[in-house]
Amino acid sequence: MKLNSEYLWKDYKMIKQSRIYALLQEKTIEIVVLFYILLFLIVGLSMQPIDELVRGLSNIFTASGILISDYMVIGGVGPALVNASIVGLIGYVLLLYNGVVLRGISIATIFTMLGFALMGKTAWSVLPIIFGVYIYSKLTKREFVTNIYPALYGTALAPLVTHAAFYFEWGIFGGIIVGILAGLVISPIANHSLAFHEGYNLYNVGFSAGFLGLIILNIIRAFGYDTESLLIWGTEFDNFLRIFLLFIFISMVILGIFIDNSRLKDYKKILKEPGNTATDFVDIAGFGSTLLNMGLIGLIGMAYIELVGGNYNGLTISGLYTMVGFASFGKHPLNSIPIMIGVWLASLISIYEVNGPGTILAALFGTTLAPISGRYGPIVGILAGMTHLTLVSTIGVVHGGLNLYNNGFTGGFIAAFFIAIIKGIKED
Fold first, then answer.
1. Nearest Cα to Cα of residue 358 among 331, 335, 383, 388
2. What are phi and psi of 232, to 5 degrees?
3. pLDDT by residue (tens digit) across 100-118?
4. Lowest-confidence range among 44-48, 264-268, 313-317, 400-404?
5. CB of 414 closer than 8 Å to CB of 388
6. How far apart are CA 71 and CA 86, in angstroms?
7. pTM
8. Structural domain spans, the chain
């Protein structure tokens, strides 16, 4: 009896310790993610006088936002960072308010929202889409939390709101209505489209948003409205943003080591994962290893920009932050680098410039295909990256730049194409 009591006490202590560890990790994630959101806000507010800040935010809030629009050019670096921070906070608060425990998918969502608020999302244009998903949840008698990720990722269609309001001249109310209608249907489309690429395209809602953007745009075209592609690309921010990003990504590496030094050996578990959808690195290896991976992926993205002679601006930060976010939910150096090499090789033998805006963004965002490389090896990953550049450079015309996750839209087709061929060969 005494022996059994001792075992029961040991089991109780282990359970208690594991619960304490889980609670500490949960709070640590909340604090660290909030720190990186507020860092944008603090730096942004400190860069310009208040009148210039307000003027810059006004320019951003009334811009079209369709691809590709650099908010750092449109409104200035400070206002762009402030807008990004507010959008990131919207995602952060909604997740916590709805009782979501922050894990890899949550981090990926927040960082993606924050990144794209430098090139198309604004603090007001994301709200109608989120509200549309909320209405959908009520109509289908589901809790909003069950659709919260399609709601937050669905803000990829935010340019639909701003473009309708200010360029179709439907007014703010008209833009809001269009955004709500898009939100009403994005969730069921996103849930259905996952089967198309079997989780090998990490930006699944990007594929769904592209499909929806295609339909909406062609309905609008039937009534005489259309969009025109943009190329607003900043080239004057390199020195400041290089230092800013280096601080962020190196701090992630250091924090990752500091937070959970005892479990950093688990980082090997991350490198062994193929990375297809539902691979949550926080659950697999802990937050410390995940944060380390996020910092390393950010530095790899920066290394690519440096090697090809690219620029740092709102668009490339968006690409880097999306990479970093999904380094908690599918991406790691071994499955991401082959995709980037593929894009680079394709640019050497094609008409696309190696340091052109489209090519650089394809290399950064194209790591949505990292799971293909992780599952089937680097050669297949390189081929997928090469194919991705050729398709992503032209496919944006079908949704008129209204879907910010154009690489996610492209990635869905590329993933389905390669998976079908690979499975066909294996079956033969």
1. 388
2. -105, 105
3. 999 999 999 999 999 999 9
4. 264-268
5. yes
6. 14
7. 0.93
8. 2-221, 238-422
